[in-house]
Design brief:
By secondary structure, the chain is α+β, with helices and mostly antiparallel strands. The chain has one domain: Alpha-Beta Complex (Peptide Deformylase), CATH 3.90.45. Helices cover about 20% and strands about 35% of the residues. It has helices at about 25-40, 125-135; strands at about 45-50, 60, 70-80, 80-90, 90-100, 105-110, 115-120, 145-150. The protein has a five-stranded antiparallel sheet with strand order 1-2-3-6-7. A three-stranded antiparallel sheet has the order 4-5-8. The longest helix has 16 residues, at about 25-40. It is globular, with a radius of gyration of 14 Å.
Length: about 150
């Protein structure tokens, strides 16, 4: 496994619509491993492939209950609304209040190519929405109601 460089706001890859993964091969599995290692090393709770320079629809998330890897994720259902504080590894030292759905159902593929469905609420729902936004070229600072440096 290898630590990857986390791209910062202003990098064009963060503003692009990520491409779907057509085939899950050794390269994609290595990317998943490297993304997870990078996320944990950076003390993050989620990481999207564009954040490490790969314009692919891949996210890794660990909101405290173990690692989730989702390829080609999409939000099938969402409900509720709450505003909460967010930060981002691509926008270090900046935090903001972002309105998100309180519950989401996310579907995608796991590293074996099997369909996965995640029913998430609370913090996990927030993290999944944040990472899926990255795949659309959206940074949390574009949705934040307020922004502040450091905490």
């Amino acid at each position: 496994m290898a630590m990857l460089e986390i791209r910062k706001a202003g990098d064009p890859v963060l503003k692009k619509q990520a491409l779907p993964v057509e085939r899950i091969d050794k390269r994609i599995k290595k990317l998943l491993d490297d993304m997870a290692e990078t996320m944990y090393e950076a003390d993050g709770v989620g990481l999207a492939a564009p954040q490490v320079g790969m314009s692919l629809q891949i996210i890794v998330v660990d909101a405290g209950d173990g690692l989730l890897e989702v390829i080609n994720p999409s939000i099938l259902k969402s409900e509720g609304s709450e505003t909460g504080l967010e930060g981002c590894l691509s926008v270090p030292g900046v935090f903001g209040d972002v309105e998100r759905c309180t519950k989401v159902v996310v579907e995608g593929l796991n590293r074996s190519g099997r369909k996965v469905r995640i029913n998430a609420e609370g913090f996990l729902a927030r993290v999944l929405q944040h990472e899926i936004d990255h795949l659309q070229g959206i940074l949390f600072i574009e949705k934040a109601q307020t922004l502040q440096k450091g905490l």
